[in-house]
Amino acid sequence: MFDIISGTSAGAINAVIIVNHVLQNRAESNPWDGSVERLCQYWKDVSTDSWCVENPLIRSWHDITWRLRQEFNKFWQMALMAFDDNFREIPCLLPFYYLWPDRCGDIATLESFRRYWSRIFFSMSGFGIPNVLSPPIFQPDFKFLNPFNFIIRYDNTPLVNTIRNIGMLKNIR
Asked: What is the mean pLDDT of residues 21-38?
């Protein structure tokens, strides 16, 4: 039925779920029926809200901070217009080039903010991602005896159990 199935990251998961559904239902007149629902069910099961944007206080804080940054940038751009822009390139000031108040730039969009903090919260915190990854497992450096050098590993057993629990894959180990 399929010569090649390919995907990367979430695309690979989508491909496996859809192809598996089709293979499990190939005796039906239309084995594709229900594949969309199966895929939607999977993503509902593994989706997890992140506290960063769903919280109205954080969202309001982001919006207010974004507006304040806009005004801050305008003020400093106007205030420093009197100076020649090349004064920052004086050798003693050059290390501080990006620390000038008019170089702060914009705050991230709300979506970028959500993605950044979700990554920090889910992958760097000690909680893991429900239904997807275990909490981080720290593997210390025993070879070079460096306590600050370690590898962070994750266990995907929660993801396997999620897939198994909604009956997507049979005989998965």
From this structure: 89
